[in-house]
Every structure is written in C-alpha cells, then in structure tokens.
Amino acid sequence: MSPESTGQNEHYLRVFWRRFRTWRGNRPFWAGLFTMVGGLPIAYFPYANMHLGNVTLAMSTTAGAGSLIIGILLVTLGLTMWFHHIVRVFAGVAAILLALISIPVANIGGFLVGFLFALLGGALSVSWAPGEPKPDLASAGAAGEKSGAVLGTQEPGSEFHSTAAVPQQPEQYDTTVEVDGGRHRAG
Question: How far apart are the first and last CA of the chain?
Fold first, then answer.
C-alpha cells in the first residue's frame, strides 16, 4: 500500500457525507424536501387539538379526510421527486395543484405554512434540470488527439481540471547565444 492511497483512512462520516452530497446533486432534493415539509402541516392541523390552560380548542373541520389525503399525497410526491426524479415535472405540477386545492380544503393550506412549502417544492421540481456529465479524461484526450487540436486551445468554459501533466508552453525568449557571451552590455 502506498501512503498516498485515499479512502482507507477516511472517517466513515466523511465518506457518508460525500456519498449523500453526490446522491443529492443528482435529483431535485430540495424540491422533494419542501414538498414533504409542506404536506405535514396540511395533514396535521385538521386533527390537532390546542390546549390553553383548561380549555381545549379542536381545529378539526368537516374536510379532515380531504386534508389528510392531500398531506399524504404531498409527502408521497416529495419521495417520488427523490427516488424517481425522471417524473419530476409531473410531481411538481401535481404538488402545485394539491397546494392550491389545500387552501379551501385544509384550514387555509395548513395556515399558509404548508401551502407555501408545497408551492415552493412544486416550483423547484418543475424548474430542476439534471446537470451535464463531465467529460471522461481518457475519451477527451483521445478526441483531442484525433481531431488534431493543439493543447491549450480549448473554447472558453470547456476546461476541466485533472491530475494529468500540464502541457509545457513554448519558450517566450530567445535562447541563442549573443555575441558578447550572454553578458549584458553594462556588465
């Protein structure tokens, strides 16, 4: 084993966090999270009781089942955005529609908290687009050699960082020996 090998001495939390960041970057993570957070107050508030001293206030309405269904559907759509991100546009539009329906059905959309979170999550899901894959180093080098491209003359914004050797630039000064042995005239 070389002392430069990476990965064997890394802490498991750092490895887990790096894998989570990679997983999170490949899907509309924040859209799913906001949609699920929006579904919780919509489903909870119609069944909640508030205690003020000896007085109990029941916030249940006749549409309690409707708000429970809307809340569960929003949580399900949030999970769909995470694990089946290919249907993100459908899930986003459905989340926006359910958020709008929750205003008259579920206590003004979970007292506007659930409505705003679900609306934001749906909008983020509709607007999310997967990133472009980074070019492979071996295939990028082979493509550059086949096309006869000169190293260092890439289009702006297409450069990528690698651990490959940096090509040397041509010398910027004249290396021929001058008449007086390379000394400066004043010396």
Answer: 55
Phi, psi of 35 (to 5 degrees): -65, -45
Rounded distance, CA 184 to CA 74, Å? 80
Picking from 37, 110, 119, 134, the residue whose alpha carbon sits closest to that of residue 78 is 37
Q: Write the DSSP string, 6-64.
A: -SSSS-HHHHHHHHHHHHHHTTTHHHHHHHHHHHHHHHHGGG-EEEETTEEEE---TTH
Task: Give, in degrees to the nearest 5, the angle at Cα 161 between 160 and 167.
Answer: 95
> What is the pTM for the complete model shown?
0.63
Over the stretch 133-170, which tens digit does the pLDDT of each residue have? 777 665 555 555 555 455 555 555 555 555 556 666 66
What confidence tier does 90 reach under pLDDT thresholds 50, 70, 90? very high
Tokens of 137: 């180093």
C-alpha of 138 from chain center: 27
The set of long-range contacts for 56-65, using a CB threshold of 8 Å and a minimum separation of 24, is 59/107, 61/106, 61/107, 63/105, 63/106
Residue 132 CB coordination number (10 Å): 6
